Amino acid sequence: AQRVTQPEKLLSVFKGAPVELKCNYSYSGSPELFWYVQYSRQRLQLLLRHISRESIKGFTADLNKGETSFHLKKPFAQEEDSAMYYCALRHNTDKLIFGTGTRLQVFP
Amino acid sequence: DVKVTQSSRYLVKRTGEKVFLECVQDMDHENMFWYRQDPGLGLRLIYFSYDVKMKEKGDIPEGYSVSREKKERFSLILESASTNQTSMYLCASSPPGRDEKLFFGSGTQLSVL
User: Fold this and answer.
1) Cβ separation of B42 and A86 shorter than 8 Å?
2) CA distance linking residue B81 with residue B71, whole number of Å
3) Which residue in A93, B61, B72, B74 is deepest, having the highest Cβ count within 10 Å?
4) pLDDT digits (tens, 9 = 90+) for B22-61
5) Which chain B residues have a beta carbon less than 8 Å from that of A100?
6) Residue A3 at interface with chain B, using a CB cutoff of 8 Å
7) What pLDDT, in 10s, does the model give residues A43-61?
């Protein structure tokens, strides 16, 4: 069965520290993977997708098929990065499956 | 800018009531989704629809049904609301295609007393 695992419920760092939010997936086919973010009192929105190989707001994520991971990284966290982050997997039927989410807290 | 509109921000209902949650999108998207969002459980897919009158069960369809009579509108129905259906409900839409992003509504916080 398809599954997305985010092992950390909460990640707390100080401003300027590196951040890595972990995401592992299980899927027998070729996955499309995404990171979505929800800032306080805002809608859930796309942060980045692996197919674009882009960097958004300083965040990057690399798909590692060998380790079935899609970890989200940022070298220097900012206070405005504090939010709820969800890793998601989309498979053949266009269905999008989310992980349980990681709350990132960046302290000044 | 894509707009996904959920009719109610907050809703309070009693156990056993029939509840309708409405969602409308204005970008002619084929796909529409209903999720519930619970702390510690993330987003769980209830139902999705890839075309008018088409629907597919998600991971937790029990106790819910959906209706998609028009392309822009996707309704979630709780036939007989129960307290364990108290949750934040999120609607989303997207064009077809696995690499397409979802556009989310602002959510409906449903409390079942």
Assistant:
1) yes
2) 26
3) B74
4) 999 999 999 999 999 999 899 999 999 999 989 999 999 9
5) 40-42
6) no
7) 999 999 887 778 889 999 9
